[in-house]
Specification:
single chain; binds zinc ion; 106 residues; globular; 57% helix; mainly alpha
Length: 106
Amino acid sequence: MKTTKKIKKVKKKKKLKGEMSKKEKAEYVKAAEQTRSHTCHWPGCKEQIPPAMWGCKPHWFKVPRKLRGPLWDAFRPGQEIDMNPSQAYLEAADKIQRWIKKYGED
Ligand SMILES: [Zn+2]
């Protein structure tokens, strides 16, 4: 009995470290709530979105898949709480902003 508990604890720890599977990560973001004021990262968009998300749905899907992928991979569940995203995440987010400046229209 005790062993099962231990395994569960380790699993939880792993999750907090951001070692979720892709499916778990998708579920985490999908279930994320509006815990504080946080707007879509598309320039000029005032849509309120959960801090675990990059942007509102219409804008997120305007971003090319090849730019969304790296951002998604670099996203660490919990970074929206401790406000400490990785360098990889920041770079991926920066690439998206540069793409929007060049090709995005609103
Ligand atoms: Zn938006």
